[in-house]
Amino acid sequence: MTDLINKIHFQELSEQDPEDVCRRALCKYDDINELYTLSVWGDEYGIFPNQLKISCMSNTTKSLHDYFYLFILHYLLTAKEIEISNEWISEKDIPAGTTFFRGPHEIPTDLICSRFKNNINEFKAVCESMHGIPVNMADAAYSFEISPRIPVAVLYWIGDDEFPAESKVLYDRTISKHLASDIIFALGVGICERLGKPSVKEEITL
Hints:
By secondary structure, the protein is an alpha+beta fold. It folds into 2 domains: 7-82, no CATH class; 88-196, TATA-Binding Protein (2-Layer Sandwich), CATH 3.30.310. Helices cover 34% and strands 24% of the residues. The protein has helices at 7-14, 18-25, 66-78, 97-100, 110-116, 120-129, 175-178, 181-196; strands at residues 28-30, 35-40, 43-48, 53-56, 88-89, 133-134, 140-147, 150-157, 166-172, 203-205. The strands form 2 sheets. A 5-stranded antiparallel sheet has the order 1-2-3-4-10, covered by helices on one side. It has a 5-stranded antiparallel sheet with strand order 5-9-8-7-6. The relative contact order is 0.20.
């Protein structure tokens, strides 16, 4: 994890005006303890810029992929004060997405398909346990508030004799205004990893 986040990004965050960060990212700041708190996929996370640390503040353990820590820090640094559009797009609809999100940057939705195969009831149960809200798409689909300005939707189609099960991650059209493509990729990987094969790591310190 220490290789994923450059310490300079914590320094950049420490130099920003907390009031501006909180307004842009819809988070909170504790002046005494010098930490930001941000809701990430239903749990509160503490970001300590001066301690180079991000940790889960919730009593219940909810696993996040390491890439989520990269997303959390960049979200605080680059989120914009804009409203959600409520228009879903795929990564290929993001500017330059058709060339960026392929090969090594392809979103690994196969992890979701490998876990659930055609067990759509299990997919629904897992999504609901992760604060998912049903949406009327695919054979089953759920939206998630990853952070206050970053909703995503995960779609699932049952396979048959001709076509295997399929999954897709969709984003609000505003996502490219908040995050660079490499951070959107990190977010997509984190979503697929959490739904497909959850990890247990909950804190990083550089």
